[in-house]
Design a protein that fits this description.
Number of helices: 4
CATH topology of the largest domain: Beta-lactamase Inhibitory Protein, Chain:B, domain 1
CATH class of the largest domain: Alpha Beta
Largest sheet: 4 strands, antiparallel
Radius of gyration: 18 Å
Number of domains: 2
Number of strands: 8
CATH architecture of the largest domain: 2-Layer Sandwich
Order of helices and strands: HHEEEEHHEEEE
Structural class: alpha+beta
Strand content: 25-35%
Shape: globular
Helix content: 25-40%
Strand order of the largest sheet: 1-2-3-4
Length: 164
């Protein structure tokens, strides 16, 4: 029996909201040098984006934005076996950002942002990621500022919204 399209869509949306909760179960089972692409797809679902590396291998992006605070990049070798698994929204990764980087390079570093905003008066487009903060009750965001004239990175910053 085939489900009506609206029920299938609702179930799919519901399943997508549960994926981040499953990370705690699925991520420890993904082991570099052992786990295949097929096993990753089975555990994590379809990647949000596939980044192609210079050597022809792929890195799959699993962003948990905007509600989550993580983005996982899972890289594969030529035999389609996991070579790396990184949670890229962290202090070490923020230090990799350089003025002049393109939007594609930033997306490659941090994954899909939670939000993008343009401030014409500042000549800036700001991408922000919801990240883990120092205080558990605050909402913390890592932000990358792009110059709207040439589209490259100007700077980065962090924003903290205290929760009432």
């Amino acid at each position: 029996m085939k489900l009506p399209a609206w029920i299938a869509a609702a179930l799919s949306a519901f399943a997508a909201t549960l994926l981040p909760a499953c990370d705690i179960v699925n991520l420890p089972e993904i082991k570099p040098g052992i786990t295949t692409q097929a096993e990753v797809r089975s555990r994590m679902g379809e990647p949000g984006f596939i980044h192609w590396n210079d050597d022809g291998t792929a890195t799959w992006e699993y962003s948990r934005q905007p509600a989550g605070r993580h983005c996982y990049m899972i890289s594969f070798d030529r035999q389609e076996i996991v070579s790396r698994l990184d949670q890229v929204l962290n202090e070490a990764s923020y230090g990799l950002l350089r003025p002049g980087m393109s939007k594609d390079e930033v997306r490659r570093l941090y994954g899909q942002p939670a939000r993008k905003r343009v401030f014409d008066n500042l000549r800036e487009e700001i991408w922000e990621w919801h990240i883990e903060g120092e205080m558990p009750f605050d909402e913390t965001y890592f932000m990358v500022h792009f110059d709207t004239g040439h589209g490259a990175v100007k700077k980065s910053s962090k924003r903290i919204e205290p929760k009432a």
